Amino acid sequence: MKFLHTSDWHLGRQFHNVSLLEDQKVVLEQIIDYLKANRVDAMVIAGDLYDRSVPPTAAIEVMNDFVDRVCGELGVPIILIPGNHDGAQRLGFGSGRMKTAGLHIISNFEQMLQPVVIESDLGPVAFYGMPYNDPELVRHHFKQSVSTHDQAHQYLSQQIQQQFKPRQRNVLISHCFVDGAIESESERPLSIGGSDRVSHEHFIPFDYVALGHLHQPQKKGADYIRYSGSLMKYSFSEQHQKKGMTLVEFGKAGFLNATHIDLAAPHQMRIIEAELESIVEQGKTDPNNHDYLLVRLLDKHAILNPMEKLRVSYPNVLHLEKPGMLIGVEQQMAAAKLARSEVDMFRDFFLEAQDTPLSDEQDQAILDIIKQLNQQ
Questions:
Q1: How many Cβ atoms from other residues are within 10 Å of residue 214's Cβ?
Q2: At 263, phi and psi to the nearest 5?
Q3: Closest CA relative to residue 322, chosen from 258, 269, 287, 275
Q4: Sheet holding 292-297, edge to edge
Q5: Where are the chain's structural domains?
Q6: Residue 233's Cα: distance from chain center in Å?
Q7: Residue 116 and residue 126: Cα distance in Å, rounded?
Q8: pLDDT band at 330, cuts 50/70/90?
Q9: Which residue(s) pair with 261 in the sheet?
Q10: Is 80 in a helix, a strand, or coil?
Q11: In principle, which of 62, 87, 146, 281 could form an S-S bond with 53, CB 3.0–4.6 Å?
Q12: Per DSSP, what are the bridge partners of residue 119?
């Protein structure tokens, strides 16, 4: 028995005011190609299908086309839960009717206790979805005294385990922050002060736990308690992470293995550190010069229109930092340093704008003007 574990699609996401939807469409096409070439029994999306609770129309259209092709044409059921970015009620609209077509949306606590059972060569496998929740929701719905995410997940896990049936494998789908796992900058915090952490021990009785929320593929506590990670890179802090999905395989004894399958977006997230001239030259021969970039300029002098010059070679520079101007200077001294060097800054500006340095007469004139301004 095999199924795909995915999470954190964030369809419709904007990054530095650039839409990532076209890249997301390319990645989803790779998933469809994989499903055409490889038989799987189901596909899981462990939350954050969309990037916000009211997703843009274009993102909904992309998802609608994906469901038509996977559930309709390929006959592969999709089982998903809402994450903290999704609107649970909106996402769950019409879920009762959709499940007959192979789309199973588990968006509330009642549905959580009614597993999606997939028949396989090894017998039935029950998929339990735990929609993203916080202690307040659990306390209100179940009238239980819980004050942390950990207590809430412990209680919900116990409720699900009471539904277990003999000779049935049990898969949990959850969107949470397992304590000790590695986070990324692109993840929205679930709470303040660390109270969002959940112990993996609550998940041990399951045969596999398909986790969402954290964007780096990883396991925590056991081989079968895993984050698949996001489909794509959504921050520069993720530049070295491998993105993709996880193929989960069950054998006669239960969980057999989990295999990461790479997915490649057309534009990668990269950080480049060097002086301007070096970066511009590098970009002329860089085969991936259309990647989304954060550039850290190491030049120690002021540069006129650096973004414009960089985009000649790297058209998708999205963010620019200039740490080179502060090398050797304490952060708290930076403002004072700049205030004392107006003349040097203007000299750099003039050289950039005119491609020639100030003459002695011009230099003295600027000194006199700045002195007059400082006296006013």
A1: 23
A2: -125, 135
A3: 275
A4: 269-274, 292-297, 317-321
A5: 2-262, 268-327, 333-376
A6: 6
A7: 6
A8: very low
A9: 245
A10: strand
A11: 87
A12: 124
Domain made up of 2-262: CATH architecture: 4-Layer Sandwich (3.60)
Torsional sign, CA 202, 145, 212, 120: positive
- Residue 311 CA to residue 320 CA, distance in Å, equals 11
Close Cβ partners of 3 (under 8 Å, ≥ 6 residues apart): 40, 41, 42, 43, 44, 118, 125, 171, 247, 248
Q: What is the pLDDT of residues 57-114, one digit of tens each?
A: 999 999 999 999 999 999 999 999 999 999 888 888 888 878 888 999 999 999 999 9
Q: Which residues pair with 258 in a beta bridge?
A: 248
CA-wise closest residue to 20 among 54, 74, 62: 62
Per DSSP, the three-state class of 294 is strand
Element (H, E) at 159: helix 149-161
Task: Give the C-alpha separation, 199 to 211, whole Å.
Answer: 13
Q: Which helix (H) or strand (E) holds 123?
A: strand 123-130
Average of per-residue pLDDT values in the chain: 91
Whether pLDDT at 137 is above 50: yes
pLDDT tens digit sequence for 263-292: 999 999 999 999 999 999 999 999 999 999
Residue 340 has pLDDT above 70, yes or no: no
- Both tokens assigned to 370: 């700045």
Residue 121's pLDDT is 87
pLDDT tens for 11-41 read: 999 999 999 999 999 999 999 999 999 999 9
